[in-house]
């Protein structure tokens, strides 16, 4: 039987932390037969796409960066988006990835060719590329979610999503409605309150907010990090341990969260003296059930005279106004959607086809799931970085990404050594991994009764890792071939 050889050993999709990290690992291992496909014209993933005012990371940058590429130049404990984007551009350059990246190539379809044991990728630009292995670094939060509001298409003013910020639109003096009070909104709302004439903030569920222990990093500290990198490493390790201790409250004993909830209530009282407004923005669900947000300026901004927090829900949007459920009509010039992303559909239908032409989405009828958040039975040599149940509510995703990259690299090493052409995770290994995972999630704070993007419509948590990140690292340290069907 004649078989064809693929164009590349590996195709990586995306150039965020996942895609670049994977590319760097391949380079370091001396593997050069790879390409990175990127839909846009620059690297950076979510840190390229999100550029709304105030966009910053809510994990300290000493930890939210590659372990092998510390950045002594962070200017704040929580770096703003432009610095993170610059850091990723620096990584692409430093590790000579640019020649591997094909920009403007959005992957539309990936089809597994069983006979030749390779993947055939089709891009929106009309290109077809083949590879033995595909590593998806597409991220879970990239497709904006818009609210299904009656009449929104009739609105005559400006409207945009937080990920699609229209910087050219002058907000100065405008009446603006913001829909949503999640992680993105709490960052941009305080930035725009001083600029707009009036802001109506449509809040469906108030988030729990904690103060952000942010500060500028002094130039003396930056010099120290540059010339004595061990000092930055020590800070990184301390941050890691501190964040990891939060697993106790999220998963092991959610009652611990009561202590943090008291702190958050105290912070609320201090930030919002008006009891009526305070009541409106006080959550009625357990602290930690939805993502805990950190901000020093969000709550104070709600207390400004030009801000109304509207909790009645939206009944209808008209050409120049929004009508709330209580019938009150408020005129607006612009609507900004801070309504998040389609986290439950990380990969669309019709995009990834495995053995027997099966659509990946058809294997996910009870919600997305994978083995170690990476591999899915029936989809040989297809690995996802930041796949199902690898998300975190407590620490840095870059740590999880590096764990998964090490796993895929070990797989490649073993494939080369043993001359395997394909590895396909066994269905029972995937099943028992997920049964155990869901058992753990059942007792976590995320299952304490709130609605969040962590869980799907059936209440199944398909997004978060229920445990310590070092446990995930241990599980992904070596490619465990015994859980895979291998083909020569
Ligand atoms: P989000 O946290 O999912 O928040 C979406 C907001 O929109 C929520 O307040 C939600 O209310 C509201 N909403 C959604 N649909 C609505 C509707 N039809 N009507 C009224 N309100 C509606 O989205 P996000 O703020 O974009 O953040 C998403 C994730 O991105 C975060 O959880 C985080 O993982 C990541 N992120 C990270 C950072 C960072 O600093 N690292 C910054 C931004 C974002 P409900 O709560 O009632 O659903």
Could you characterize the architecture of this molecule?
The chain is α/β, with parallel strands linked by helices and 488 residues long. It folds into two domains: 8-43 and 97-142 and 342-487, FAD/NAD(P)-binding domain; 152-207 and 252-337, 3-Layer(bba) Sandwich (FAD/NAD(P)-binding domain). Helix content is 29%, strand content 17%. It contains 13 helices and 20 strands. It has helices spanning 17-28, 46-49, 81-94, 185-192, 219-227, 229-244, 247-252, 257-271, 275-280, 298-302, 397-418, 427-442, 469-475; strands at residues 8-13, 34-37, 101-102, 107-113, 118-123, 128-136, 158-161, 175-179, 198-202, 209-210, 293-294, 307-310, 314-317, 321-324, 329-331, 334-337, 352-353, 382-384, 422-425, 484-487. Strands 1, 2, 3, 4, 5, 6, 17 and 18 form an eight-stranded mixed beta sheet that branches. Helix 1 runs parallel beside helix 11, helix 5 packs across helix 6 and helix 11 packs parallel to helix 13 (469-475). The protein starts with 7 loop residues before the first strand and ends with a strand. The model has no long low-confidence stretch (mean pLDDT 96). NADP nicotinamide-adenine-dinucleotide phosphate (NAP) binds next to loops.
Topology of this protein?
Blueprint (H helix, E strand, L loop, with lengths): L7 E6 L3 H12 L5 E4 L8 H4 L31 H14 L6 E2 L4 E7 L4 E6 L4 E9 L21 E4 L13 E5 L5 H8 L5 E5 L6 E2 L8 H9 L1 H16 L2 H6 L4 H15 L3 H6 L12 E2 L3 H5 L4 E4 L3 E4 L3 E4 L4 E3 L2 E4 L14 E2 L28 E3 L12 H22 L3 E4 L1 H16 L26 H7 L8 E4 L1
Parallel strand pairs: 1-2, 1-6, 2-3, 4-17, 6-18, 7-16, 8-9, 8-16, 9-12, 10-11
Antiparallel strand pairs: 4-5, 5-6, 13-14, 14-15, 19-20
Helix pairs in contact: 1-11, 5-6, 11-13
């Amino acid at each position: 039987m004649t078989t064809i050889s693929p164009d590349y050993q590996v195709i990586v999709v995306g150039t965020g932390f996942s895609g670049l990290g994977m590319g760097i690992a391949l380079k370091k291992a001396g593997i050069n037969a790879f390409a990175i496909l990127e839909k846009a014209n620059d690297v950076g993933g979510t840190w390229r796409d999100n550029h709304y005012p105030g966009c910053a990371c809510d994990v300290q940058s000493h930890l939210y960066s590659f372990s092998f590429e510390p950045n002594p130049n962070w200017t704040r404990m929580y770096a703003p988006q432009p610095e993170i984007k610059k850091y990723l551009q620096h990584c692409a350059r430093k590790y000579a990835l640019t020649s591997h990246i094909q920009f403007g190539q959005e992957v539309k379809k990936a089809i597994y060719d069983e006979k030749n044991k390779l993947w055939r990728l089709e891009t929106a630009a009309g290109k077809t590329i083949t590879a033995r292995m595909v590593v998806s670094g597409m991220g879970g939060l990239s497709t904006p979610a818009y609210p299904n509001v009656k009449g929104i298409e009739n609105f005559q003013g400006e409207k945009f999503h937080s990920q699609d910020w229209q910087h050219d639109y002058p907000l100065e003096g405008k009446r603006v409605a913001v829909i949503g009070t999640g992680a993105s909104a709490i960052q941009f709302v305080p930035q725009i309150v001083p600029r707009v004439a009036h802001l109506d903030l449509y809040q469906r569920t108030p988030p729990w907010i904690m103060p952000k222990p942010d500060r500028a990093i002094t130039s003396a500290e930056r010099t120290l990090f540059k010339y004595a990198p061990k000092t930055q490493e020590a800070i990184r390790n301390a941050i890691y341990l501190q964040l990891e201790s939060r697993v106790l409250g999220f998963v092991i004993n959610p009652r611990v969260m009561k202590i943090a909830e008291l702190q958050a209530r105290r912070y609320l009282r201090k930030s919002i003296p008006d009891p009526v407004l305070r009541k409106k923005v006080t959550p009625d669900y357990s602290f930690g059930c939805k993502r805990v947000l950190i901000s020093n300026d969000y709550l104070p901004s709600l207390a400004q005279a030009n801000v109304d927090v509207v909790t009645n829900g939206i009944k209808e949007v008209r050409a120049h106004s929004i009508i709330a459920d209580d019938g009150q009509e408020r005129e607006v010039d612009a609507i900004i959607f801070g309504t998040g992303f389609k986290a439950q559909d990380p990969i669309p239908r019709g995009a990834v086809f495995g053995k027997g032409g099966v659509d990946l989405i058809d294997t996910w009828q009870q919600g997305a799931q994978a083995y170690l958040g990476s591999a899915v039975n029936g989809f040989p040599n297809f690995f996802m970085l930041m796949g199902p149940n690898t998300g975190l509510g407590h620490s840095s995703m870059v740590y999880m990404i590096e764990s998964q990259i090490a796993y895929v690299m070990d797989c490649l090493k073993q494939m080369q050594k043993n001359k395997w052409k394909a590895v396909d995770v066994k269905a029972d290994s995937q099943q028992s991994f997920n049964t155990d995972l869901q058992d753990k999630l059942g007792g976590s704070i995320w299952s304490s009764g709130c609605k969040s993007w962590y869980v799907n419509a059936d209440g199944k948590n398909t997004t978060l890792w229920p445990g310590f990140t070092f446990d995930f690292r241990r599980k992904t340290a070596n490619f465990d071939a015994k859980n895979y069907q291998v083909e020569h």
